[in-house]
Each structure stands twice: as structure tokens, then as C-alpha cells.
Design goal:
The structure holds two protein chains of two kinds.
Chain A: E1 3-7, E2 10-14, E3 19-26, E4 30-38, E5 45-50, E6 56-59, E7 62-66, E8 70-75, E9 84-92, E10 99-100, E11 104-109
Parallel strand pairs in A: 2-11
Antiparallel strand pairs in A: 1-3, 3-8, 4-5, 4-9, 6-7, 7-8, 9-10, 9-11
Chain B: E1 5-7, E2 10-13, E3 19-24, E4 31-37, E5 44-50, E6 53-56, E7 65-68, E8 75-79, E9 88-95, E10 105-106, E11 110-114
Parallel strand pairs in B: 2-11
Antiparallel strand pairs in B: 1-3, 3-8, 4-5, 4-9, 5-6, 7-8, 9-10, 9-11
Classes of the chains: A mainly beta, B mainly beta.
Chain lengths: ~110, ~120
């Protein structure tokens, strides 16, 4: 069975303190890995899709990378508005559904 | 461009009652998904539609959950009868097509509390 594990569960940062979130996965064959941001009381908001090991994508202070076993979401010089739960999800070669991890809740203090 | 719309936003019911949720996807999106998100967990797919047809309902508890997508646009998800463990956020998402690595766009969700 496909497994997606995110760590840490929660991360508290000072404004400007860079850090990384981890998403490790065990799947039979990866088609794509997705990162979403979810604010309290809202639905997930799409950030990135990564397809192959070595790929990197950036958006403002966020940078996502992918290896054969895991993905990292790097937050550079975070601001309070980066506070949210970050979800990763995988799609396999076998079907279309997304399998989500439990998320990492990031809190950035001013 | 309007996003995915869902209603109601909140619902409180007692166990054994029935409840229905409505979703209107992004215009032109052929694929519609219903997810269940329990507090502290990631979303779990319940059912996926491509136009009117069901693509995947393998994780839908069919003894109590049902969903339909008439005319290939709006969709409703029903729970009858509800159990305490159904308390969760029900998210609707849509994508242009059913395809590999298609980006899914989510609505705000319906928060259900079963007492």
C-alpha cells in the first residue's frame, strides 16, 4: 500500500528563520508529487507538482525538491503569512487518486 | 475565474440523521472529486467522477454514503444514516480532466459535526 509520511508534525519558526519540511513516500511507481498549502478553515491550495528525481520548483519563499524516496519543502526567510499546514500528496503509475500525508503545521512568529 | 463552490459551509446533525453536501466545480472541469478530511489527517479520496461517470469509488462506504453528478457539472454527496465517526471536513475538488498529474483545485469544504 502507498504510504506518505510528513515530518515534523509541527514547526514553530521565528520570522526570517529558514527551515525544511520532509515528505517521504513508499509507492510502487511515482507519477507525480504534489505540495499544497492549507489555511485554517479553508481547502488546500495548490503549490507545486514534481515529476522526477532531481527536479526543483520555486515560488516566492518556497522551494520544493524531489529525490527517489522523499521531497523537501524549503521555506527561506519565512514571514508570518507563511503560517499554514503544508500537505504533500503522491500519485502513482497505477491510478489517478492522490494519497495525502497528514501535513506539517508551520507557525511563523513575528 | 471562480473557484470550486461548496455548501453548506457548516452542518451539525445528530447520529442516524441524514445530510447532503453540494459542490459546483470550476467551469469546464470534467473531473470532480470528493474527499474526507478528519481532524489532524490529510484528505482521503471518497469518490471521483469523470463527467457523469464514476472513475473510482473504492474508498466510499457505500452502505451509508452515496454521491451523484447529474449532467456532468454539480455534484451532491449524501450520508444516511450518519455516525459519530463521520465528523470531518468534506472537500470537493475539480480538475480539467482525469489524467496523470492533473492539478486538483479544492473548494473551502463543508465541516460536519455529528453529535
Amino acid at each position: 500500500e502507498d504510504q506518505v509520511t510528513q515530518s515534523p508534525e509541527a514547526l514553530r519558526l521565528q520570522e526570517g528563520e529558514s527551515s525544511s519540511l520532509n515528505c517521504s513516500y513508499t509507492v510502487s511507481g511515482l507519477r507525480g508529487l504534489f505540495w499544497y498549502r492549507q489555511d485554517p478553515g479553508k481547502g488546500p491550495e495548490f503549490l507545486f507538482t514534481l515529476y522526477s528525481a532531481g527536479e526543483e520548483k520555486e515560488k516566492e519563499r518556497l522551494k520544493a525538491t524531489l529525490t527517489k524516496k522523499e521531497s523537501f519543502l524549503h521555506i527561506t526567510a519565512p514571514k508570518p503569512e507563511d503560517s499554514a499546514t503544508y500537505l504533500c500528496a503522491v500519485q502513482t503509475l497505477n491510478d489517478y487518486k492522490l494519497s495525502f500525508g497528514a501535513g506539517t503545521t508551520v507557525t511563523v512568529r513575528a | 475565474e471562480a473557484g470550486v463552490a461548496q455548501s453548506p459551509r457548516y452542518k451539525i446533525i445528530e447520529k442516524r440523521q441524514s445530510v447532503a453536501f453540494w459542490c459546483n466545480p470550476i467551469s469546464g472541469h470534467a473531473t470532480l472529486y470528493w474527499y474526507q478530511q478528519i481532524l489532524g489527517q490529510g484528505p482521503k479520496l471518497l469518490i471521483q467522477f469523470q463527467n457523469n461517470g464514476v472513475v473510482d469509488d473504492s474508498q466510499l462506504p457505500k452502505d451509508r454514503f452515496s454521491a451523484e453528478r447529474l449532467k456532468g457539472v454539480d455534484s451532491t454527496l449524501k450520508i444516511q444514516p450518519a455516525k459519530l465517526e463521520d465528523s470531518a471536513v468534506y472537500l470537493c475538488a475539480s480538475s480539467l480532466e482525469t489524467g496523470f498529474a492533473e492539478t486538483q483545485y479544492f473548494g473551502p469544504g463543508t465541516r460536519l459535526l455529528v453529535l
